[in-house]
């Protein structure tokens, strides 16, 4: 295993996991647009959990979505994907810490450590895929409503939370890919088991070295 690449991959995956925790509760996933409005008295912004409004004086008023079943299907799916991303990232961090070469958790069995690190890389990669799917799906619905001339509701633009989510997904995908590459064994020597060496017996008897060659007994 390449220790430097392994450490860099873990750092990327960890930063991606942290940004998932930042993006998930971020209030600004979409912001009401000012395009076509002459006078704007309030700004509305939403995320997966709440809807907030801010007037010209800076007063904020937020409310949680009243019912899960009344939400749009894509919002429910994005919630599930983001939570799954957070969980898989947590598992990836634990597995990577156990499987890293500098860790003493699995001893000196580098084959086992490589497999555990590979599992951690897979979790980071899944984390990135879940996050990318959630934020891209949410952004697609924003753009679809924005460019639909027959849409009667409030039109929104992409908010800061989605950019944080895209950054998180990119870091997690890069970290997972690098970790999967770094867990590859550098040479075939690491796969060979160590030869058995019997323990030395401490006793008063010491065998004298033989003075005869092998041919002397023939």
Outline the structure in words.
The chain is an alpha+beta fold and 218 residues long. It has a domain at 3-40 and 72-184: Butyryl-CoA Dehydrogenase, subunit A, domain 3. The protein is 50% helix and 10% strand. Strands 4-3-2-1-5 form a 5-stranded antiparallel β-sheet. Helix 2 (73-99) runs antiparallel to helix 3. The chain starts with a helix and ends in a 36-residue tail after the last helix.
Describe the protein's topology.
Elements: H1 3-23, E1 30-32, E2 42-46, E3 50-55, E4 60-64, H2 73-99, H3 110-146, E5 156-158, H4 160-182
Antiparallel strand pairs: 1-2, 1-5, 2-3, 3-4
Descriptive tags:
50% helix, 218 residues, 10% strand, 4 helices, Butyryl-CoA Dehydrogenase, subunit A, domain 3, five-stranded antiparallel β-sheet, alpha+beta, elongated
């Amino acid at each position: 295993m390449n220790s430097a690449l392994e450490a860099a991959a873990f750092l990327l995956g960890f930063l991606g996991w942290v940004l998932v925790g930042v993006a998930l509760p971020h209030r600004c996933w979409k912001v009401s647009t000012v395009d076509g409005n002459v006078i704007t008295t309030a700004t509305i912004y939403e995320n997966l959990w709440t809807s907030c409004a801010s007037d010209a004086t800076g007063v904020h008023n937020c409310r949680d979505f009243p019912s899960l079943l009344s939400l749009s299907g894509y919002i429910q799916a994005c919630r599930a994907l983001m939570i799954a991303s957070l969980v898989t990232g947590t598992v990836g961090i634990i597995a990577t810490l156990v499987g890293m070469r500098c860790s003493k958790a699995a001893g000196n069995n580098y084959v086992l450590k490589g497999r555990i690190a590979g599992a951690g890389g897979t979790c980071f990669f899944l984390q990135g895929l879940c996050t990318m799917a959630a934020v891209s799906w949410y952004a697609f619905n924003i753009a679809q409503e924005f460019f639909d001339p027959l849409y009667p509701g409030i039109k929104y633009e992409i908010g800061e939370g989605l950019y944080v989510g895209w950054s998180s997904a990119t870091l997690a995908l890069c970290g997972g890919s690098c970790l999967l590459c770094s867990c590859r064994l550098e040479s075939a020597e690491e796969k060979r088991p160590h030869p058995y060496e019997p323990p030395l017996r401490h006793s008063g008897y010491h065998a004298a070295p033989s003075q005869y060659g092998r041919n002397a007994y023939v």
